[in-house]
Amino acid sequence: MSGGEVAGILVAVFWAILVSFLAFALVRLAQTLKATTKLVAEVTEQAVPLLSEASATVRSANTQLARVDSIAADVQEVTSNASALSSTVSTAFGGPLVKVAAFGYGVRRAIGRKGRPDEQPARTVVVGKTLPSARRGGRRNRGSKG
After folding, report:
1. pTM of the complete model
2. Under a CB-based contact definition with an 8 Å cutoff, are residues 133 and 124 in contact?
3. Alpha-carbon distance 105 to 35, whole Å?
4. Which of 39, 51, 68, 141 supports an S-S bond with 137, CB 3.0-4.6 Å?
5. Average pLDDT for consecutive 10-residue bins of the chain (146 residues)?
């Protein structure tokens, strides 16, 4: 055997190994593509019902949001009506009620002073001026005296 024949045999063996390796790689690639195709088909079968359910859920949520929106508009209208009513009542009755309360306070105070005639405010003379004496008790202490 000559050197050229040995080299030819080595190249033939190398090409046989390379073709075998490529064939094996192609077989594995085909199996992977089949598995991927099967997986995509299964995902598609499961995704379509999920998408339809999600679509129904979104429609239901939109319906509920529309109801909540109308309720919020009604609440806003009721709030504005209550505010207007409150300001109207305050304007109509506020001033007169304050006047009645002030009148009642004045009457109570006048009656309270008439009931105790012996308590006249003592006056202190200071060189040329007359000053009223200091109060003996504030509003808090009047009820305890008697």
Report:
1. 0.39
2. yes
3. 95
4. 141
5. 88 95 96 96 90 94 94 94 89 82 88 66 58 56 50
